[in-house]
Structures are given as structure tokens and as C-alpha cells.
Specification:
With 291 residues, the chain is mainly alpha-helical. The protein has twelve helices and two strands, in the order ααααββαααααααα. Helix 7 packs antiparallel against helix 8. The relative contact order is 0.13. The protein binds geranylgeranyl diphosphate.
Length: 291
């Protein structure tokens, strides 16, 4: 298909851009939970969940959305921290024996292997609660109504209609058959909602108008789906019988869906100029990601 937008058409320095913003969010997270001699055991455990080598993809999207609208990415730092805190809490809980029962995460002992089940639970709880404080700390000049919407959005993305709800359906699906529509619904809620929420947060902080917010929300939904589909592809060898698109529709069909959803993401950026190249580059990177 000759009209597909391909990575080579973009000349965006994604690697260095990403590395710089990773530093921004990690510095802010470090300041939020400082590693001092007198830090409590709670902070130590929360730091363990947050500083164990994640890609920081959700913060990266929040920064990208803000910059797409011509604002300095830094305005999204508190929101970026909040979405990363929710993400890290979800991983600590997901790894617990009552859910995935994993011993390793990012090559290191999972939170419960390091601190026991109560430690992983409470560190996750602490992160999920502080995320709401962090996102309510607004950069100068951002109206309080935007702050309210950010808090509500974070609750929607991570709550019963978003990540938690998706995880519940996923847990139920382990013991019953799911069809393609049900699996897509799980993916969109469990993984996609937080990814889309991060995009929307960056956009709202940058003062997106309703049309821009709608376009970026659609972009966020599409990349959220691509993220989970590519996760299914990357996990296919490790868990050949798991609840995944590769198991359900096969590798080739899953790759086709990745390509279609990537193009859907890119179509939603058509009304934006070169400032959206960062989001285009992120969508294209995601389509071919190897980790
Ligand atoms: C128990 C209240 C309560 C909530 C927990 C466990 C849970 C709800 C949700 C789990 C959601 C989950 C684990 C989704 C998986 C998403 C996913 C693909 C994670 C991997 O994300 P990456 O690749 O990870 O961005 P890194 O390591 O780079 O940060």
C-alpha cells in the first residue's frame, strides 16, 4: 500500500528526545520520593517499584502531546509522574501470587519477592494514591478547571472502566474462552486507557481545544491498542497459550491489526503540523518495537 506513512519519511531524533524526557520524569520522581538516610521503609519500597528500569512510555506520551501543541514538554512533568506511578503500582500488584505470580520484573526480583506480599501491596497503594496528589500540582498558569479534569481523567483511566476493570475481565478470561471483540475490550481498558490518558493529560495541560483533544484522544486510543498488540507479539514465544491476539487470530493477522491501528493513529495527526512529528515518530516506533 503506497500511501502508508513509513518511518523513513520522518526525520525525528526520537532516541535522544526520549532520553532527555526520561531524565525529566526520573528527576521529578526522585524529588517526589527522595532517597535520604532517613527515608521510611514505605518510600524505599515505592522507590523500588518506580526505579527499576521501565521505558517510561506513558510519561513520554504526555510530553509528546504537550509538545505537539507547541508547549514546552516540562509542563507535563507532574502528570507524567502520576501516570508512571499508576503504571508501576499496577505492575507490582499484577506480579503478585494471586494474579500473574511472577518472580522477576525488568530482570529484577518483583516487589513481593523483594519486600513480601504486604510490601508490594502497600507500595502499590501508596503509589496509586500519591499519583492523584502529583497530578493536582499544576504548573503556573494552568487553570484549576484543567486540574480537576486531569484528576478525573486519571481516575477514569485507572479505575473500574479503565485499567482495573480491564484487569478484572482479563483475570476472568483466564478460565473461559474470549472472542476477538472481548479481547480488544480487555486490551483497550487494561493497557490502552492509561496510555490514552497520558496523551490527554499532556494535551490538556498544553491547552488543547476540543477538536485537538478529540484528535489526540483518538491517537491515544490507537497507540494504546498498538502497544498491547505488540506486547502480545513480543510475548508470543514466552506464553504461547496465553490470552492474546496472537493466540486468538495468529501472528500475521495481529501484525495486520498493528499496521491498521498505527495508520489510524497517524490519520488523527493530519491536522497538526511538524510539531506532531514526535507523536508520529512514537507511533511508528511502537509499530516495530522490539522491547
Ligand atoms: C489491584 C486496585 C488494583 C489494581 C491493579 C494489576 C492491575 C490492577 C492492572 C494490571 C494492568 C497491567 C499489568 C497491564 C499490563 C500492561 C503492560 C503491557 C505492561 C508493561 O508495560 P511496559 O512495557 O513496562 O511499559 P515497563 O517495564 O517499560 O514500564
Amino acid at each position: 500500500m503506497s500511501n502508508l506513512i513509513q518511518p523513513t519519511q520522518l526525520d525525528f531524533p526520537l532516541k535522544s528526545w526520549w532520553a532527555e524526557r526520561t531524565n525529566w520524569v526520573e528527576k521529578a520522581l526522585d524529588e517526589t520520593f527522595p532517597a535520604t538516610d532517613s527515608m521510611t521503609h514505605t518510600v524505599e519500597m515505592m522507590r523500588y517499584c518506580v526505579f527499576s528500569g521501565g521505558k517510561r512510555f506513558r510519561p513520554i506520551l504526555a510530553y509528546g502531546a504537550a509538545e505537539c501543541l507547541g508547549k514546552p514538554g516540562q509542563i507535563a512533568t507532574n502528570a507524567a509522574c502520576a501516570y508512571e506511578m499508576i503504571h508501576c503500582f499496577s505492575l507490582a500488584h499484577d506480579d503478585l501470587p494471586c494474579m500473574d505470580d511472577d518472580d522477576l520484573r525488568r530482570g529484577k526480583p518483583t516487589a513481593h519477592k523483594q519486600y513480601g506480599e504486604w510490601g508490594a501491596l502497600l507500595a502499590g497503594d501508596g503509589l496509586s494514591i500519591w499519583a492523584f496528589h502529583k497530578i493536582s500540582e499544576l504548573p503556573e498558569g494552568v487553570p484549576a478547571e484543567v486540574g480537576l479534569r486531569l484528576v478525573q481523567d486519571l481516575a477514569v483511566a485507572s479505575g473500574h472502566d479503565g485499567m482495573v476493570g480491564g484487569q478484572v475481565i482479563d483475570m476472568q478470561a483466564q478460565s473461559r474462552q474470549v472472542d476477538r471483540a472481548a479481547l480488544e475490550a480487555i486490551h483497550r481498558a487494561k493497557t490502552g486507557a492509561l496510555i490514552c490518558g497520558a496523551v490527554r493529560a499532556g494535551a490538556m495541560l498544553a491547552g488543547a481545544d476540543p477538536a485537538q483533544l478529540e484528535a489526540l484522544t483518538n491517537y491515544g486510543k490507537a497507540v494504546g491498542l498498538v502497544f498491547q498488540l505488540t506486547d502480545d507479539i513480543l510475548d508470543a514465544d514466552e506464553d504461547p497459550d496465553g490470552v492474546s491476539f496472537v493466540t486468538l487470530i495468529g501472528l500475521e493477522e495481529t501484525k495486520k491489526l498493528v499496521e491498521e491501528s498505527t495508520q489510524e493513529a497517524l490519520r488523527n495527526l493530519e491536522t497538526f503540523g511538524h510539531s506532531a512529528d514526535v507523536l508520529r515518530a512514537l507511533a511508528l516506533f511502537l509499530q516495530d518495537r522490539k522491547g
